[in-house]
Amino acid sequence: MQKTAGIHHITAMVNDAQRNIDFYAGVLGLRLVKKTINFDRPEVYHLYFGNESGTPGTVITFFPWTNQLKGRIGTGQVGVTRYRIPTGSLDFWKKRLKKFGVTYSSSVSFGETYFQFEDPDGLLIELVERDGGPVNHWNFNGVGAEYAIKGFDGAVLFSAQPHKTTNMLENVMGLECIGQDNELLRFKSEGDLGNTIDIKLTPSVRGLMGAGTVHHIAWRAKDDEDHLKWRELVQGKGYDPTEVRDRNYFKALYFREEGGILFEIATDPPGFAVDESSDKLGTQLMLPSWLEPKREELEKKLPPVEVREVSKSEF
Fold it and tell me: I need a labelling partner for 294 at 20 to 30 A (CA). Which of 14, 93, 95, 114 fits?
């Protein structure tokens, strides 16, 4: 059976690009690995944050658009994005969140403690201590490798039809159901990051797309050949995938599963060093070749942004 290794990336909607960078780079210590534009709406940035190289399973991406309305987290969406932190680093993160005025709460499920908070746009984030997965060696604004977020631990899916999303994860994506704890049904993939997916079984309000919500979740394909096999499989299961789209840093296809969540399948290669060197990732506005002639026009429309160290007073 064909199986995905787990999450490739998660993409969300936010309002302010600089505030987004200040939080995910300045507070959470992730690296801005790519500053580009939404290929379908080039007047909007597409910002990618991850570990030092933007490895699949570590990358969260954003479409920051000032004029979009506030969204509502609910069914048909990824409800919670979960990050894995090194074992023993939780006290550091509790103090850091407090320093930046970020309110958090804790809960226990499957015998593990999760610390939940909201980003500035209302996106729900959780941190969990767990071994496994490579160390993130990126060091920025007081977050060293011993504390740095490794990447995704997983996500909680808010499905409008949990039983059908369960079937999708098990019988199409190849994840294994490993247990249930109250309202959460847990699945696991074979990757070392982004490999733990929970489905919320209890009813929830219908999600509304907008700032502070996840637009889609992307799953990993090994390469172009594997990607085409995924398209055949998904289509053969009765879904309606898009054509393969070239996103420069990966190939992508999209379809909506029966619980209403937009799924993407994305290739691991070629990665983010395809158009700028590894030591310069995220430092310049990168455009696909067909939009390069419009660089001057686009740069005038896009607000100026920078990666900068932030403090409590600035955030």
Answer: 14
